[in-house]
């Protein structure tokens, strides 16, 4: 029993010594590993801090401009021809707004009518066609024209015979009679509607005296009315067609007599259609009042080379008067539409070469000048080269860095 107790005590003692011997080694190994882990963590943390510091440095060191602003160098400004002017109120002619109606220019409108009773034989143009001067429109046939053509042929032959014989052979009376008969017959067929080219063909025996003749367009324009069918018999004076040169149109604006007294011939004006403005000018002033509305008519001339306007359209007329008020005015090219459709100008900021887009309200555009509101007097506004600035801002998506 004592032996077993001794062996047990000895085993316990040896086990305790082994643990004490192994523990220092294990602790050193763990310390080394922990030191390595701590170093890696510090490196990783250090890298993270460095990256963070770098990002913060970029955020504070970079230059970010406000939307709608741009910096331009002096070379860019010179190349683009950018000019800046101090915006100050100037005397501007006061405008009046009046309802108006687009009408045909009566001085460039013609009616195609036969001068004698006739029948429509053939059509050469139709409603809406654009025709040129001297272009055939319709062919007519008339008994009166046939008689006149026959008389012209006889008079022409007699006149040629008399001229060939000469004054020494024929009497003075016969000579003058033949000459007058030819001139009278020639005038008759021309008055009935034959053109000079048709008469020459008739006298040259290149066509017969069948009573047919053509009506030709006296101007270049568009056929606006067409009131006949082929085969129809029409009386003299019947309106077959109406042709108008629509390159310029009239606008009849109705104003009060007091306002009419402030309007002068030649004054600039505008025609407002669907929020779009088109330049015009005053060409006539009526001196009688409308019996119903007791208003006076002011006639404007409007360029219609792009065929935007047609007779009967209702528009708004903005007419410049002799009265003047002070207002802010810029060249029309200095005021542009922004991406959202509003009007804007470019104002120079405190730093030279820095410009900012500022929205404004356009009150009127008369004679190439825009009257604006919504900006302080004394602002330095771009008056030339605004389109270049707008293009540069648009290309950079409103984040331009042109230093």
Structure keywords:
403 residues; alpha+beta; conserved putative lor/sdh protein from methanococcus maripaludis s2 fold; Elongation Factor Tu (Ef-tu), domain 3; six-stranded antiparallel barrel; four-stranded antiparallel β-sheet; 7 helices; 21 strands; 33% helix; elongated; disordered C terminus
Quick structural overview:
With 403 residues, the protein is an alpha+beta fold.
Protein model, in words:
This protein is an alpha+beta fold and 403 residues long. The protein has four domains: 62 residues; 91 residues, conserved putative lor/sdh protein from methanococcus maripaludis s2 fold; 90 residues, Elongation Factor Tu (Ef-tu), domain 3 (Beta Barrel), CATH 2.40.30.170; 129 residues, Beta Barrel (OB fold (Dihydrolipoamide Acetyltransferase, E2P)). Strands 3-12-15-14-13-16 form a six-stranded antiparallel β-barrel. It has a four-stranded antiparallel beta sheet with strand order 4-11-9-6, with no helix packed on it. A hairpin with a 5-residue loop joins strand 18 and strand 19.
SSE arrangement:
Layout: H1 2-61, E1 69-71, H2 74-80, E2 83-86, E3 90-103, E4 109-112, E5 118-123, E6 130-131, E7 136-141, H3 143-165, H4 172-192, H5 196-203, E8 212-216, E9 221-226, E10 233-234, E11 241-244, E12 248-255, H6 257-260, E13 268-273, E14 276-289, E15 296-303, E16 314-331, E17 336-337, E18 343-348, E19 354-366, E20 369-373, E21 380-384, H7 386-395
Antiparallel strand pairs: 1-19, 2-21, 3-12, 3-16, 4-11, 5-7, 5-10, 6-9, 7-8, 9-11, 12-15, 13-14, 13-16, 14-15, 16-20, 17-18, 18-19, 19-20
